[in-house]
Write a structure and sequence with these properties.
It is a single chain. By secondary structure, this protein is α/β, with parallel strands linked by helices. The protein folds into two domains: about 190 residues, Rossmann fold; about 190 residues, Rossmann fold (3-Layer(aba) Sandwich). Helices cover about 50% and strands about 15% of the residues. It is built from 21 helices and 14 strands. The protein has a seven-stranded parallel beta sheet with strand order 3-2-1-4-5-6-7, sandwiched between helices. It has a seven-stranded parallel beta sheet with strand order 10-11-9-8-12-13-14, with helices on both faces. Helix 12 packs across helix 16, helix 13 crosses helix 19 and helix 19 crosses helix 20. It is globular.
Length: about 425
């Protein structure tokens, strides 16, 4: 089986190579970490026991913060190392954890690369954030007697459908996992439906409630507003936006400006390689553009009274933009891309709106909507109508905002439960 799997990986690598090379050249992606990707990882403290945490990209990296903090305190005699897959995930992990922990790119799941990685790392335990389960990885972890634990586990609608089609393979792969700490009962039931033993699945809640910032730093908020020369005018932040979505938002903004002349807009695309593309869309309007990267770097200073659209073309600042907004729109939801995480938007204490295509965050969506802590719209027209209501009815907007923040606080506590189960298993 492993030989067939490695052959399939090789074929896939050959097929995607032209795309990867194109992105290397045109988008400056996939240029870093190739030594890591073939298994060359050097630990800082090889004499210590080791916990290997894998977080695919930015969302998982952020979600791991409280787990890493708690494990560092409770298991201070162990080295914690963090791997990630994407360039943005690596940059974010390095910014958050790089001073204290080794950050590296996750090796490709070929047998020889994974074996090399495990021989270099010698982990005593592997934590996978959410559900990044690779067949060779879990098999070799078992060979090295390193228990594999899925933390903040979830199976989206799409993933569940895919795993259900290959249930025998999924059963074999999941059988090598020692423990799954699930975000909610629905995800727990899905793991069990895929033949994971019920004894191996524990519902602990979502870590993202714990990492969500419900009390934004007042100094950071003040500093950001001063840099952008924002005063009391209403501010709409569209965060984590995707392809074709910015045009909808710009059209809606144009209509709203006729009724709310002081309204300001911030757009923060999800993917950094789209920053220039979105900049051109904004430049094509009559509103003007302020690129936050230039403001942050100090290369430009915003003039008082500048009402241009602000492009959030930096990484790691979306949380701050959500905090200064009056209304937050969570992107990749008006287009069928699965959504962006709306927890940070709701935690900020500002009104949160998103579209119907948020299937990757089903649990959070359900909790927020059931508690009246967010608003779902179906299309651009409904987005316009909802924003118009929120801008015109301050009490309505504040009620949604307050309920959203309260819901986030009520659901916190997953970190403590998860850490207790992890320590119990590996101690």
């Amino acid at each position: 089986m492993r030989y067939i799997l490695n052959l399939l990986y090789l074929v896939a690598l050959v097929l995607i190579s032209p795309i990867a090379i194109y992105r290397m050249i045109r988008q400056n992606r996939y240029r870093k970490g190739w030594s890591n990707r073939i298994g060359n990882i050097k630990r800082r403290f090889p004499d210590k026991k080791c916990i290997w945490i894998h977080a695919v990209s930015v969302g998982e990296v952020n979600a791991a913060r409280t787990i890493i903090k708690e494990l560092s305190e409770k298991l201070s005699d162990r080295e914690i190392i963090i791997s990630t897959t994407t360039d943005t995930g690596f940059a974010r992990a390095t910014a958050i954890y790089g001073d204290k922990h080794l950050v590296f790119f996750f090796p490709m799941d070929f047998t020889f690369t994974m074996k090399r990685a495990f021989k270099n790392i010698r982990p005593n335990c592997c934590l996978l954030m959410e559900l990044e389960v690779w067949p060779n990885f879990v098999r070799i972890a078992n060979e090295f007697n390193a228990p594999v634990i899925v933390v903040n586990g979830r199976i989206s609608d799409r993933s569940f459908a895919r795993y259900s089609k290959i249930k025998p393979v999924a059963r074999m792969m999941f059988s090598r996992i020692s423990l799954i700490l699930s975000q909610c009962q629905q995800y727990t039931d899905r793991f069990i439906a895929l033949s994971v033993s019920s004894e191996k699945v524990i519902t602990t809640g979502s870590l993202k409630y714990d990492t969500a910032e419900t009390n934004p730093n007042a100094d950071e908020v003040k500093e950001l507003k001063e840099k952008l020369k924002l005063t009391d005018e209403p501010l709409l932040v569209a965060g984590g936006t995707g392809n074709d979505e910015e045009k909808i938002i710009l059209d809606v903004f144009c209509k709203l400006k006729k009724l709310h002349k002081d309204l300001r807009l911030v757009i923060v695309p999800r993917k950094p390689e789209r920053f220039d593309e979105v900049a051109k869309l904004i430049e094509a309007t009559s509103f003007g553009i302020i690129r936050f990267s230039q403001v942050k770097a100090g290369s430009i200073e915003v003039a008082p009274g500048n009402k241009s659209i602000i492009l959030g073309d930096t990484m790691g600042d979306l949380r701050k933009f959500y905090a200064i907004a009056d209304i937050n729109f969570v992107g990749r939801t008006l287009v069928p891309m699965g959504g962006s995480d709306m927890m940070e938007a709701a935690a900020s204490g500002n009104c949160t709106i998103f579209g119907p295509h948020a299937f990757n965050f089903r649990q959070t969506v359900d909790v927020l909507l059931q508690g009246g802590g967010a608003i779902m719209v179906q299309n651009g027209q409904q987005l316009y109508e909802t924003l118009q209501k929120c801008l015109s009815d301050h009490d309505y907007r504040e009620t949604i905002a307050s309920k959203g923040r309260d819901i986030i606080i009520e659901n916190q506590g997953a970190t403590q439960k998860a850490v207790e189960e992890i320590v119990k298993l590996i101690s």
